[in-house]
Amino acid sequence: MSGNKPEGRTVEVLELPENVDEELLSLYFENRRRSGGGPLESVEIKQNRAVLCFEDAEAAARVLSKRHHVVHNSELSVRKPPSKDQSRLLLRGVSPYTSTEMIELYVENMMDLNVTDYALIPSPEKDFILIHLSQPLSKGRMGVFLPLFRRRLEMMHTNN
């Protein structure tokens, strides 16, 4: 494996057909003639998408540059995975009946923030909310905050 960062070697595959297993996906993306890829370090399949980490960034770049990927007669959508921005948190599954004020108070209390330290951006359906922080959250602090926040949101969701 080369010493380059995993972010540059990672590709996300969307719209996987139901009957595609990890072995077939690995064989396809390791085949340079068919996919443009090369040796894989890891494959992680979740529902109808997969995250592939190649040994070399060049293989990931070739896969991304190739426009047409077909497995089991199904076209796959391949993209660079979204970046993990430590200054943005996406909360999914929020009840549309949960007041913005309750979420604001909870964010401020849980994260020890002032109202000027963040902005809440709800989706049009109000089923998810983007929390945009003025300063990135440290990984350790995010790891403590997110599970607690999700549990509290679930409780608020069931109470409404």
Automatic annotation (TrEMBL):
One Pfam family it belongs to: RRM_PARP14_3
Gene3D superfamilies referenced in this protein's UniProt entry, alphabetically: 3.30.70.330
Any one Gene Ontology molecular-function term assigned to this protein's record: nucleic acid binding
InterPro entries documented for this protein: Nucleotide-bd_a/b_plait_sf (IPR012677), PAR10_RRM1_2 (IPR034464), RBD_domain_sf (IPR035979)
Coiled-coil region list: none
Superkingdom assignment: Eukaryota
Stated name of the protein: RRM domain-containing protein
